[in-house]
Write a structure and sequence with these properties.
globular; 5-stranded parallel β-sheet; disordered N terminus; 7 strands; Rossmann fold; 316 residues; 10 helices; 35% helix; two-stranded antiparallel sheet; alpha/beta
Length: 316
């Protein structure tokens, strides 16, 4: 098995369209804010913290082919089985899975709305499909599953996807495929034992074709992560388990993008994106750390509708 340097083709700054990625990130925040208002609640803070990361992944970091899925998301067609052999996963929105293409796996299923918004901004999913979010019978589910746009796996239990990503990366190494496997994670998943087993296994098998982006926004359902279950120092712990680790400002697009080009020989790469769960909407700062699911109070709706209009006009 080839355990040499990773398959990344190092790009120069000039090869990345940072303005395009910035526009995509702004679009992600705008779309999810609008959805939060229209649906009377959504996982808004996850979009505010990870918009640049998701925009960077779809905006040039990953090597993806054209979408192989319908532009308008189809309705739920049932689960795989003998009577549903034509079942396809939502990964088709990320394009073909051939040897030269990268794969994207999503670990925190509640970040689904961010992935859908990213697909819309990347021109892979229709805006109309995005509006079918959390509607009965729609594949654009609130908690992403393997049939949801952009999703290849069902990962409702945190910490599972790194094991699956490692298995896929290991298989790709054995087949001498050039494409890398990208995994998007949330920092709360670093509290899970399976996550650390996955990191250890990825290091053991020298999976330098595995790139893990972690949204470190420092909060979870019960409060600040450092108070619920401290996971710092994340970089030192990952390196102790055998990975290569890079810390970046998760809202600095150039840092987020260039981290993917970090040379790593025989080790999985982890990019820790330190982020703000109210980025772009400081009006939510006072709610921290209780921003896991955002629902506006009656007296706040008009305020955030006005903010949304300013975002659409490019005022903010």
């Amino acid at each position: 098995m080839d355990t040499g340097s990773n398959a990344a083709t190092v790009k120069t700054n000039e090869q990345f369209d940072y303005k395009k990625i910035e526009k995509m990130a702004h679009g992600i925040r705008q779309r999810v804010l609008e959805l939060t208002i229209d649906k009377n609640g959504c996982y808004l803070s996850q979009a505010l913290s990870s918009a640049e990361t998701v925009a960077a992944l779809y905006g040039g970091v990953m090597k993806l082919g054209e979408s192989q899925a319908p532009f308008v998301a189809p309705p739920f067609a049932g689960i795989p089985g003998d009577d549903n052999k034509d079942y396809v996963t939502g990964a088709a929105y990320n394009g073909p899975t051939g040897p030269g293409y990268d794969r994207l796996l999503i670990s925190p299923a509640h970040y689904a709305v961010v992935i859908y918004a990213g697909l819309v901004e990347a021109g892979r999913l229709s805006p109309e499909s995005f509006k079918s979010f959390n509607v009965d019978g729609s594949t654009v589910e609130q908690i992403g599953a393997e049939h949801s746009p952009g999703f290849e796996l069902t990962t409702g239990s945190f910490g599972q996807a790194i094991s699956q990503a490692g298995g896929i990366a290991h298989a790709r190494k054995m087949k001498n495929e050039d494409g890398r496997v990208f995994l998007f994670m949330s920092d709360g998943e670093l509290e899970e034992g399976q996550t650390w087993e996955g990191i250890q296994a990825a290091a053991h098998y020298k999976l330098d074709n595995l790139v893990v982006y972690v949204d470190v926004n420092g909060q979870q359902y019960d409060g600040w992560t450092k108070d619920v279950m401290n996971i710092e120092p994340i970089d030192a712990r990952i390196e102790a388990f055998g990975g290569t680790c890079v810390k970046v400002d998760g809202h600095n697009i150039e840092e987020v993008v260039q981290a993917s080009q970090t040379p790593t020989v025989g080790k999985p790469l982890f990019v820790l994106c330190y982020t703000n769960a109210a980025q772009g909407l400081p009006e939510l700062d006072h709610r921290k750390p209780h921003l896991h699911f955002v629902r506006f109070k009656d007296n706040e709706v008009e305020q955030f509708k006005a903010i949304l209009e300013d975002m659409k006009k490019g005022v903010r």
